[in-house]
Every structure is written in structure tokens, then in C-alpha cells.
Design goal:
By secondary structure, this protein is α+β, with helices and mostly antiparallel strands. The chain contains five helices and 15 strands. Strands 2-1-5-4-3 form a five-stranded antiparallel β-sheet, with helices on both faces. Strands 10-9-8-12-11 form a five-stranded antiparallel β-sheet. The chain has a three-stranded antiparallel β-sheet with strand order 13-14-15. The two termini are 35 Å apart.
Amino acid sequence: MEKLTLGSLLDVIGELFSDEISIAVSNTNEYIYYRPSKRVDLKIRRGDPVKDGTIAHKALQTEQKVSEFINRDVFGVPYHGMAVPFHYDGALQGCVTAIYPALTEGKSVVTVKTEDGWKPIPFDEVKYLEVKERKTHVYAAEYIGTNKKALQDFEYMLPKEYFIRCHRSFIVNVNHIADIFPDTHSTFLLSMNNGAQIPVSQSYSSYFRKLLGF
């Protein structure tokens, strides 16, 4: 068998985990491997230093497993994670970090700007969100409004059980999908129950199919 590199081994191990989880590996000073997920991407690059305040840094400093929530001040997005240090011949060599999307923190509505003011919309009434003209447009049964948050912020805020990123410009509520049609060889078109047609891009199609089980 040909020599197995660290990166290829970690890629294989990463396939055993959910697409929700990003994996980072560092030595005692910098990251040497990073595999992002569809749900949370901290934009880590090989060679980036391990920042103060991260769970990786805390695990290296204490030489113990660390599991906690990290707010958006460190990487620009909130996340939950677990970091485990590893040793060789009794000496600290680095750590492996599993990164999970942040939970919804008890929120249950999306508040949108309307012509007359603001409207809180319960999560289950939101059909989909679309970014256009530098704004996030929120579509519900009876209301359409805008919100100042980026689509990436909603990706972490909305319940992952039924809100799915399907395109760089769209997040959909799967409970409001009426039909799914093949579009090209590896993409799909979603027909929503309000008549809207939303594309599933190639980069999200595999993840989308896995979550919906088809």
C-alpha cells in the first residue's frame, strides 16, 4: 500500500463525521490541516497561527480537552467546538479540533423591516431567505421584508433541522418545498409552496440530498 499522508488520512476520517462538523489540526503554534463543513467555516488556512481565545489555544495551554462555545469576536462567526491535545513520547505535539455550528440561542422569530415598521416572523412561517441588492430578503406566507444580517449569520441562527443553505444566495425552509426537480446533471430546482423557483447549486447539491435523504 502506498504511503498514506496525514492530509489524506484526515480527509477519510472526516467522511465519518457529519457534514455539520469542520475539522482543524494544529501543531503547538499553527494550523497544519483544515477541513470546512457546509454549515460552519472559520476560513482557517494552513499556516495560520493558533489565536488566543480559541478552544485550540486553550487546549494547547492546558494540555487538556476543551469543549465550549466561542463567540463571533474570534473568527467572525460563533461556534461550538471540542479540542483535544495530542502527545508523542510525552511531549505536546498539537491538537485536533471539531467545530460545530452555533445553536439558535433560544430565538424563535426573524424580525424583518417592512414598509410600516418591523414584523417578527416565527421560524416555521419563513419560507426562504434570499440575498439580493446587498440585503437579505425574508419571504413568509403573508409578509416580505428585509433584515440587516448576512445570509451566513442566518445559517447559524436558524434551526438546522429544517433550514438548509442550498445556494450562495438562498436558504430554504424544507417544510415549504412542494417539489424537487432535476435541473442539470448534478443540480436541482426547488418549487416552493408559494410558487417560487429556487436553484440548488452544484456545491450544495450533495449536502442537500444527504439531509433530505434522496
